Amino acid sequence: MASTHGAEVLVASNRGPVSYEVRQDGSLHAKRGGGGLVSGLSAIGPHTDAVWVCAALSDADREAVRRSGGGRRLSVDETGGQQVRMLDIDATVFSDAYNGIANSALWFVHHMLYQTPLEPVFDAEFRRQWASYEAYNRAFAEALAEEAAQGAAVVVQDYHLALAPRMLRRLRPDLRIGHFSHTPWAPPDYFRLLPDDIAAELLGGILGADRAAFLTQRWADAFTACCHAVLGPGIPSGTRIGVHGLGADADFLRERAHRPDVAERMAALRAEIGSAPGGAARKTIVRVDRTELSKNIVRGLLAYRQLLDDHPEWRERVVHVAFAYPSRQDLAVYRDYTAEVRRVAEEINSAYGTPDWTPVVLHVKDDFARSLAAYRLADVALVNPIRDGMNLVAKEVPVVSDAGCALVLSREAGAYEELGEDAVTVNPYDITGTAQALHQALTMPDGERTERTKRLAAAATALPPTQWFLDQLHALDA
Question: What is the DSSP code (8-state) at residue 354?
């Protein structure tokens, strides 16, 4: 099934490097995506024939596929000239696979989010959706098999495509296949909430790769432990296990954070934050997250309220700048969570606010320039996820901060493995402990905060996105 003009390097992910919109005149407009994969694939150079296989996510994406003739590659200037193969997967199959299985089952397992007295329920509907998840993965495997040159390197991304490596291996045993997990991996006792056959299929799917890689050693060890618990001792396929701790892109962040639109946002934020009684600058506690259940935004707000109770001297002298950008609003549980974030923030402002002080400045509309402005202004960054594969915000804030920033960091974030020594560490469930950590961070001496920030920034940028991707390709060559 090798293509006569096959690609030497292929990336597969649910979301691709480009998205489309149909303009009023009927023309298609392509917009380049961000992130480490886009930068990394561009870094392999224009002389390497590379293809990115992804799903069409919108009606405009599907229109772009139709106009290209269906199963053909799209050549898009916005991706640096890289080739894209976008798959127009049946809408019901896609919804079942993406919302029903990937985001409502696998994400919940790996982030340990279930309220187990009531959920999960793996019934006939789940089995129907699982069949769609298999079909979705098969579509990717078949497209990759068609596009790849003999002996090509294929890097499959994340929990959406856990079955694809083994499916692809059966179609094209000549390929060098890697799988990378961007989420945590659940420990065996929690992973085995899944039906036994499904758990075995997921593990076996990833073990179809030559190499399975993770963001931290903790998640890699959990995967290995699950293999032993579900499939028996050893890794029978001979799959190698690797770790690549994705870092922040320092050059991009520092350049982007000093553009005029960020300066405008900083001025607006300073006006919202205001000044403390007597005219002194107020301290800022900054968080930037999607309203993802695992990010623990509500407990962060409750900890801030506890800080105001335990240390009333901070009233009118600190502001919690909370950017909570809506995520997965097509799922009811996420809409409810976003509403709860709003409710708690409003409750704090109502209980503690004064005519001259709004304790919580909450924004729920995504604005990257405003996020960078908050990074630069932050005295304290609050990153308290219940569980997180890495958490790049924890790495980005120290890189961008103007005057140094104390990092309050959950021990359940993957970033803790690299940053924990210079952060103020918290148990994400402990409201009182997190409030104490916020006080410690707010009162940290300037010199100590500056030195910690330098060390945090160095650790955060140790493996920038381009090198992170190239390291995975080189490891497949080993």
Answer: B
